[in-house]
Amino acid sequence: MTLRNKVSDALKDAMKAKDATRLSTLRLINAAIKDRDIAARSEGNDEGVGDPEVLQILGKMVKQRIESARAYEEGGRLELAEQERDEIKVIEGFLPKQLSDDEIETAVDKAIKATGATTIRDMGKVMGALKEKYTGQMDFGRVGGMVKERLS
Fold it and tell me: How far apart are the C-alpha atoms of 136 and 97, rounded to whole Å?
């Protein structure tokens, strides 16, 4: 079952359960997927986006909500920060298990060996290999620093 189908099924379940928070978050996910589908169609991809792109969308949504929650907390809007955290929980339910720090380091080392990377110029190859295999399982902003450090 694709992620898109899992989101649709969860949306139907949330409607039946009258879970307003979950329902609104799932609708936001659906809208983001449809937006990306429209963009893909304009680029000639009539099938829309697949699971790797959906994972990227979900990862981006989580990151946005983390930043929003932090901003709300700093502004003293704790109820809005809590709402953002609730949305994060719903979105994370569709993401694969996040890798631990040790697992990330192992994955980075394997990707460097597999691509034969030796200098910082090879960073793109390494990041591409990691994204291909671990999309949705690690924060690539943080991983980029690790790769850069190892190749310097």
Answer: 8
- Torsions phi, psi for 40 (to 5 deg): -65, -40
Binning pLDDT at 50, 70 and 90, where does residue 123 land?
confident
Distance CA 51, CA 2 (A): 7
Which runs of consecutive H residues, i.e. helices, occur in the chain?
Answer: 3-17, 20-42, 51-74, 78-92, 101-115, 123-134, 140-151
CB 29 within 8 A of CB 61: yes
Q: For residue 119, what pLDDT is reported? A: 86
Q: What is the pLDDT of residue 30?
A: 93
CATH among 1.10.10.410, 3.40.50.10540, 1.10.10.10, 1.20.1290.10 for 101-151: 1.10.10.410
- In order of 3, 22, 62, the CA distances from 71 in angstroms are 30, 22, 14
